[in-house]
Amino acid sequence: MKTSSFIFAIVLLSTFAFSCAVPIIAQGADYTPLAPLPNTLNTTDNTTADLSTYLPGIFKLLIAIAGGLAALVMVIGGVQYLSTDAISGKEEGLERVNNALVGLLLAIASWLILNTINPSTLNFNLSLQRISAPTAVTGPPDADDDGDGIINSIDQCPNTPAGDPVNAQGCPLSAAVMCMGAISGTMVPCSCPDTECTVIGSAGTGNYSSIPLKAGAGDRVATSLADRLVVMNTGFSATGFTWYVSEAWKPTVNHQNNCHRLATCIDANISSPTAANIKTFIQRAQLMSNLVAVYEVPTLAIKQQLVSAGVPSSNCRASSPGVCVVTAITAPHFSVYCSSCTRTAP
């Protein structure tokens, strides 16, 4: 098996030489060999060579050498087999022939295997195509049509005069959009743009104009709240129950709950604030429009009187309908909350 192993080693060496070729070297300058090997020169000038032509030539040459060696060893083995009468000599000659045949088959098999897996493997094309770096894709920035520094996608006051200071929503920080804060004497930015709010009362349009509104109490609320007030007012009108909005947006007094500055709640009142009517307003606001009505009174005595008359007690939270004590107010009234009415503006 020594002969077959030697022939196979030649083929293996040629394959290894090909696989270890570095593409960068393959792209180097051509050279002119002093003693060129057969089939290793460029076909364009037949004088120079590079790795892309030299390696295929070496591979083919080694295959040919392997075939020649196999033939030579078979001849030697045949002569040895015929020239001796000793059994051991004949066996040795026969073994040489067998080993040569095995080596030749291995050489041919190496080519067949590579050609079967991928014929392009035998082309020895070592050139690499240069890959360009991907170009970063950038879209145009969102426009700022009114030039207030707030892009259109989040600008809630799109027609702000140029140069006016604005808040994070693009609405002016002027007296027209400043609201009473939670603490007495403070003012905070607020807004109620047409994209999120609706005018109610006589200045409103459609069904919104039917919502009863006290004069000078603001005339805007969040649209989601306005829709619920329309439903509630329709139910009250059918039964002759009289009520009105006593404060919409923007608030004219200090409020602890920020919903007054967001226009997602209102203050309201009824024409006849008896215990029975207060209880009716609280119940129907919740049943008809899923609104929470909290009747705020300035003293504990008034609350206890109403509770004893059947009005539910409240802790003054927006989720607790009933009567509660707010000592800072001057006159009893309802605060009507909408838990599902949300806005993003301050």
TrEMBL record:
Keywords: Membrane, Signal, Transmembrane, Transmembrane helix. Residues 1-19 form the signal peptide. It comes from Candidatus Zambryskibacteria bacterium RIFCSPLOWO2_01_FULL_43_17. InterPro entries: TSP_type-3_rpt. This is Uncharacterized protein. GO terms for molecular function: calcium ion binding. The chain crosses the membrane at residues 52-76, 97-114.
